[in-house]
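[Meeting: bench + compute handoff]

Bench side (C.D.) handed over the final construct sequence. Compute side (W.E.) agreed to return the predicted structure before the next meeting so the bench team could plan truncations. Sequence as handed over:
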Amino acid sequence: MAQQRASGVGVAVASTGKTHGSGEASRPDGELDQSGFAANWRSWLLALLLIAGVIVAVLHWGDVKKFAALVTHSKPVWLLAAAAAQLLTYVALAIEWALVLRAGKCRAPFGKLLGLTVAKHFADQMVPTAGMSGNVVVVDRLQAIGASRPVALATLIMTIIAYYASYGVVSLIALGLLWWHGHSSWVVIGLIGASLALSAAVPALALWLHKKGANAIPRWLRRMRTVCELFEMIKEAPTRLVRSERLIGELTLLNGAVFALDGLTMQLCLFALGLHVPFSAAFSAFIMASIVVTLGPIPMGLGSFEAVSIGMLRAMGVPFEAALSATLLFRGYTLWVPLIPGMFAARRQLKQRKKKKR
């Protein structure tokens, strides 16, 4: 589950907005129409995700065929091991959500949480909104399977904090490994420095917004009811959950395990091609490529991830052909293969929303 981007706290939680109180009857007709559109926009998002999935599959069908060709010429045992490693990344994320929900005294079937991880990954990849599209899906579906809105918001905020905390840790580990092998440079240090700044800024912003609520915005913006509701919704997340150091620590460890499993997947792809490359080389290449994707503007990191991954593997002594093939295999596992169940998950959720409207 590589390059998951979990930022966009404020905009993402706007998707959960439900008006409280009895003020709707006195709203002007124009405002009622607007609220009706706002209530239905998640259905439009799910439809957009499906269309985007089809377009991406068509435009990049050549990459899919290359992945299939590589699979047929690779060692099946290592390919199965790589698939298992990727499956465990989804299990780890589902466990994260389950831990927060349990702490918030909400129960959800683990199977549904596991399916939701696939839908989130699909949404994050299809719509380049720095993870906001996936966060919309998460909060919406957590409420649909029984979580209260405050706990669903807390789950989102906690996973964002834990993701970036672990992201900073693994960036430092990658820097240490590259320095140990003599491959550190000012470019590498600059990229990792930027990722560390992002890793510190996003959790700090999430906690600050949760503490301040509507007070975090200028007074002139507070006159806009929608904006005030948005920031007050962030504040709804229970403080005992959002600021639980034990829970943050547990989620950070699980996120760190996801990064390690992604690095292991890269190593297993190299094994499948007949190259026995140390974990440190595969892990460092994956982390550096992920940093470039996270900091860069290119949707899904198409091209940028491959270029950095191949370059780092080459620096570690991997032949160019093997580095290229391993990167394509890795991208197949983390990007192209999950699109299939992701499209089905989005389609199922779209049908469920239509049934609720009837």
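W.E. noted at the follow-up: The chain is about 80% helix and 0% strand. C.D. will use this when planning the next construct.
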